[in-house]
Every structure is written in structure tokens, then in C-alpha cells.
From TrEMBL:
It comes from the Bacteria. One of its GO terms (molecular function) is transcription cis-regulatory region binding. Residues 38-98 form the HTH tetR-type domain. Residues 61-80 bind DNA. This is Transcriptional regulator. It comes from Sphingomonas bacterium. The keyword Transcription applies. Keywords: DNA-binding, Transcription, Transcription regulation.
Amino acid sequence: MRPLLFEARHVKAIELVEAAGGCAGLRTRAGPGRPRDPSKNDAILSAARESFLEKGFHASTIEDIAARAGVSKVTLYNRFGDKEALFDEMVRGEVGRMNALFEPSVDGPMALADRLTAIGTALLEMLFEPDHVRFDRLISGEIAQSPKLAKRFFEAAPGKCRGALAAIIDEAAARGEVSVDDSELAAEDLTALWKGFCDFQLKLGLIERPPHDAIVARAARGTEVFLRAYAPVPQGG
């Protein structure tokens, strides 16, 4: 049976992401003495991610992670504490990546169709990455045993993305570019049009990751269908 401490730690990790607004500001364990080499932290986190995705959380060991990273177990424990903390860092990274997709464009204002297509393309590129597909399988296995973690993870990542997309749709509605009654439901419609069954097929191993051009075309088509379905209602119509 999974220890309650394990569940509590991962829920806390997601709460920290929410409080920090993503991964910025989150740090590993700090202590007295001279500054630590950040490259070792990166090596440890990369090794932990590889091990978790390859073997799963329970089959991964501190010994294997340390060996992959080229560090001693003492160094790993001093910097991160334990295996659960490394898993927390992995979850934080994925949550931060997903939330970053909806940050304002540095290129300035964009036409609604272009902005939605760009967001859809970026989202699908991430969701269809082999590593993310493996992460999706991994996190599904973990949260299946922890309903509380499942709720917190959804609110911190997919739920927050739905809210960000709904806000964009609300802004477009205020400008008269779309007509919606429920922006969150509209966001779900748009996401479904982008993804179709592709992510499900990838998770089952039935298809290979689509090439970039196919992903762009999928996002553009989904956006086009969405904008037609939610086109403004003519006055008096």
C-alpha cells in the first residue's frame, strides 16, 4: 500500500507550482557552505526523468539515478533529499511547460485565428512528444492511486490551461469576434478539435508522432472549424 507521505508530498509539489506561478522561483534544497554547481542538479534531474519514464517510479532506484547522473548517492541526497522529491521536480517541470504555452506573445497582438493556431500547435507539439506521452502514462499510474493528487494535478495543469484558453475566448467575444455562452466549454471544444483521437492513439502506441507540418495543419483546421461554429450571431438574426 502506498504510504500517505508519498501522496502528500506530490500534492504539496503541485501547490508550490501554483503559488509560484510555474517553475520560476522554485529551488532545490539549500544548505550552508559554498555555492553548489547547478550543472549537477541538472544532471540529477535529467537522470531521474530518464529513469522514471523508462522504469516507472517504483522500479527506479536512487542508485540507478545517481549512476546515470555521474554523482554519488550522498550528493543526490544532499541536493534533493529522496526519490519522491525528484518526482516532485519532474511534475513541476511538466506543469510549468504546459502553463507557459498560454503566456502572452512577445511578438505583440495577433489575429485571433493566428493566435489560436499558434497555441494549438505549441500544445500539440508538447502533448505529442514521446517523453510527454510517457510522462502522461506515468502520472496516470500515480494518480490512479491518489484521487487527491489527481484533482490537484488537473487544477494546476490541464484545468489552468482550460481557464487560460477560456480567457482568450472571452476577450475575443468582448471584441465581437466570436459568440459564446460558456467560454470554458468552448475551450474544451477547441482543444478536442485540435487533438482529436491522436493523443489517445499515441498513448496506446498505435501511431507514431505526427510530423510538424501535420501538427500545424491539425491545429489550423481545428481552429477554423471552431471559429465557424462560434461565429458571431448577426444582429437581428
